[in-house]
Amino acid sequence: MASLPYADVDSSLRALAGRAEGFGRFAIGGLDGPIYCVTTLADDGPGSLREGCHKKEPLWIVFEVSGTLHLSSYLNVSSYKTIDGRGQRIKLTGKGLRLKECEHIIICNLEFEGGRGHDVDGIQIKPNSKHIWIDRCSLRDYDDGLIDITRQSTDITISRCYFAQHDKTMLIGADPTHVGDRCIRVTIHHCFFDGTRQRHPRVRFGKVHLYNNYTRNWGIYAVCASVESQIYSQCNIYEAGQKKKSFEYYTEKAADREEVKSGLIRSEGDLFLNGAQAYLSTVANEECVFHPSEFYLTWTMEAPSDSLKDILQICTGWQSIPRPVEQMVIG
Questions:
Q1: Which residue numbers delimit the Pectate lyase domain (predicted)?
Q2: Class of domain 13-315
Q3: How do residues 193-229 score in pLDDT, each as one tens digit?
């Protein structure tokens, strides 16, 4: 029987808070604030998502409407916010969310599709943002990345998300000049990368824990380790299409170093299907990769299997689930 995580986070509205596995486990979102109801699909103004995200106080944002919300510009999210799409079907298009110098953000059960413009990502996390959990979102077809995590943003978990119809899916670490990105720590688990071309993810400098993800039919590679990155790939499923190379290594020179380096990938219990090739770094180098237990003690994981594959195709991305009730505090 599959042991999927988060079985009880839909038991009440705020049960998500502080429940992420991995590096984003401290994210509480708007736990300590009132509920804010989005009552319009307008891009701005009273009752809009933008108005709620701009407010400075903690808020648990829910939706009273369903439909497509066209963002004419990036929507900046301020600290201590939960954007909770459970109970409705909200699709963001045009531009994306920007998490800039903020902390304690939870984004749950939204769709992102059709973002247009230079450097337009579905969810852009930079700079200096932390304690973030992105759960059960569907992302496709943006002009740049679907989720980008750069410029010293850290302690982030991405779980149960669905990625499709895209090229440069997920970048972690900006470029070789941003040596401050050595602080980056990200957990990606129970996600489904469905025919996206590359970057599942591509990592510079940071530490990334991947487990129980399903990546299939990539166009260049599945996972890329670039300058100084450490990637721990654990019990994932890599199912090749025409391109067989699961792991890629790009060499770059950090701005404060003389030598050119790639990153390191350690694979433990991964399943390689349809001729997928790991191309692992040497065993000696693998031992230099961090182990997640250095940072957190537990995570929900099972051996990769056909049943896990089936479940990830059903249970990732936006879900048609009711909004949980708000538990009243008596006393």
A1: 33-244
A2: mainly beta
A3: 999 999 999 999 999 999 999 999 999 999 999 999 9
